[in-house]
Task: inverse folding
């Protein structure tokens, strides 16, 4: 336990201090990993803990990204950067969730996918949202009088938010509420039979996951200084799914590791060949075949690490 | 028997197409009563349970719990009114431990279960209830075992435990001894006999020894209808009951 906490502290410190001894490209790569890792972690709360496989999680990532873009242009503060995107994503998740959780399995996958593609279509066609080009030239916020425009400051800002949200998600999975989600994952019908209003719990999980995904989207806008309709596209949902599966479902940390593996592999392979998609595809097939528990599952099996 | 019934079924029916699985069943269970429902396979016993617990909607008739109709309520809402059930086939949380299984059931009243950030200390009352239930169903020594790793007989005990942990006013048990060895059946019977008398019991059972030692009254169901009702000895002496069982064998 103490060894694990110490290990985690060292890791966090290394991530935080990364810009001090690394150039701008690796730092940007790390920041992208952190943002997509947060997005994947929010999906893991649904997939790994509650057993709801959503293929439309990009809807909330996109909502957060676009709301942040629109709001930051008007006033570059924390409200625009985080609060507003989170709030709108939460409302979006409440609405989409209300309809989607009535079905499960493949139908849930299809419904969430359909909703996210509707958002994509709106963003792609709406001139107010920049249509297919998206919105560019988005300023980063000023926090307590500090502009976080520079790479180092943005890094500190990112670490602080990521840390808080990761801690929040971790607490949720271990809370009484989180235990109810695990019960639903294990046996939804029995949870209902002993008296749990299962739908309400599933909707709450969906809204929490959607809100965190919205914040991840908002951070991505600030990271890039722009946003495009791709944020809503199903491939964004698919990437998060892959990250969770590669890392190991139901572990939170696995989602972050999966994001790291995905993005590092992508940047590494794509710098050598244009056929990087093919190589990535084959790698994922092999991973799923030979490491079905994901990175974390395999580590636990080999080294005897425990949850 | 002058007391108002805790559970009353009023001409309850359920049709599946042309088949009347349950046909005009009227029943009345008094508080603290232990009632057995017997009948050959296909008599509609489990369908009757599903109608009572809200898992199936009746085609006609009413279910009254403590004098109030529970028609149209979802299973979780009926469970929260103090009616809980066990299932004929084990219906557990296999990858969670025995203690976690029981704690989840004990916390189903919702108190504390909406806490997002609270830790284990918030689970105090439901953990205590879970331990108490584990004692009652004879699993106190297996608390940290995953439910899926228990023996079949122990899983049956946990199955009853999940229903009991919710502190029900009335407990519906669907063949609690199904598939058990004679020793396991005897243990389960002792356990059920030891339940506090405040818990009203409605039990579907095939084993006549279990019925004889547990039930105050017995209702015989045949082709979805009540054939007869009375004390175990009364029902046993009824030639029609004998015929129904022989006829189905």
Result:
């Amino acid at each position: 336990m103490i060894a694990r906490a110490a290990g985690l502290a060292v890791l966090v410190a290394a991530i935080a201090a990364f810009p001090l001894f690394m150039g701008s490209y690796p730092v940007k790569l790390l920041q992208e990993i952190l943002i997509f890792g947060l997005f994947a972690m929010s999906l893991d709360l649904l997939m790994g803990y509650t057993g709801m496989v959503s293929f439309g999680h990009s809807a909330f990532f996109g909502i957060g990204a676009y709301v942040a873009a629109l709001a930051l242009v008007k006033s570059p503060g924390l409200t625009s950067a985080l609060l507003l995107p989170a709030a709108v994503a939460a409302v979006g998740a409440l609405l989409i969730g209300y309809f989607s959780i009535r079905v499960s399995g493949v139908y849930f996958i299809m419904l969430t996918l359909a909703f996210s593609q509707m958002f994509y279509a709106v963003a792609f066609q709406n001139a107010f949202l920049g249509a297919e080009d998206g919105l560019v030239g988005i300023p980063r916020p000023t926090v307590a009088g500090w502009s976080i425009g520079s790479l180092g400051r943005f890094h500190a800002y990112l670490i602080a938010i990521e840390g808080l949200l990761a801690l929040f998600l971790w607490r949720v999975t271990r809370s009484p509420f989180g235990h109810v989600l695990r019960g639903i994952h294990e046996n939804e019908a029995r949870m209902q039979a002993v008296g749990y209003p299962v739908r309400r719990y599933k909707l709450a999980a969906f809204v929490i996951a959607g809100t965190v995904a919205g914040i991840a989207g908002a951070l991505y806008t600030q990271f890039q200084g722009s946003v495009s309709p791709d944020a809503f596209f199903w491939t964004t949902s698919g990437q998060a799914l892959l990250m969770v599966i590669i890392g190991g479902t139901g572990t939170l940390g696995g989602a972050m590791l999966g994001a790291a593996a995905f993005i590092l592999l992508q940047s590494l392979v794509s710098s050598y060949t244009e056929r990087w998609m093919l190589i990535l595809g084959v790698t994922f097939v092999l991973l799923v075949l030979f490491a079905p528990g994901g990175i974390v599952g395999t580590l636990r099996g080999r080294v005897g690490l425990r949850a | 028997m002058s007391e108002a019934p805790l559970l009353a079924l009023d001409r309850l029916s359920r049709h599946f197409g042309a088949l009347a699985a349950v046909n005009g069943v009227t029943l009345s269970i008094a508080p603290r009563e232990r009632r057995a429902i017997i009948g050959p396979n296909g008599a509609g016993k489990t369908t009757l349970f599903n109608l009572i617990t809200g898992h199936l909607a009746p085609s006609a008739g009413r279910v009254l719990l403590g004098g109030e109709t529970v028609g149209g309520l979802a299973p979780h809402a009926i469970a929260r009114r103090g009616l809980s059930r066990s299932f004929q086939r084990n219906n557990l949380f296999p990858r969670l431990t025995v203690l976690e299984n029981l704690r989840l059931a004990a916390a189903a009243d919702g108190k504390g279960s909406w806490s997002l950030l609270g830790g284990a200390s918030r689970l105090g009352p439901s953990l205590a209830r879970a331990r108490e239930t584990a004692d009652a169903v004879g699993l106190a020594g297996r608390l940290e075992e995953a439910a899926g790793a228990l023996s079949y007989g122990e899983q049956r005990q946990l199955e009853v435990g999940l229903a009991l942990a919710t502190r029900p006013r009335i407990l519906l048990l669907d063949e609690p001894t199904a598939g058990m060895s004679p020793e396991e059946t005897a243990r389960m019977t002792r356990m059920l006999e030891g339940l506090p008398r405040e818990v009203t019991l409605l039990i579907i059972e095939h084993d006549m020894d279990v019925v004889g030692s547990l039930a105050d009254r017995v209702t015989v169901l045949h082709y979805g209808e009540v054939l007869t009702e009375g004390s175990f000895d009364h029902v046993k002496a009824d030639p029609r009951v004998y015929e129904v069982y022989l006829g189905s064998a």
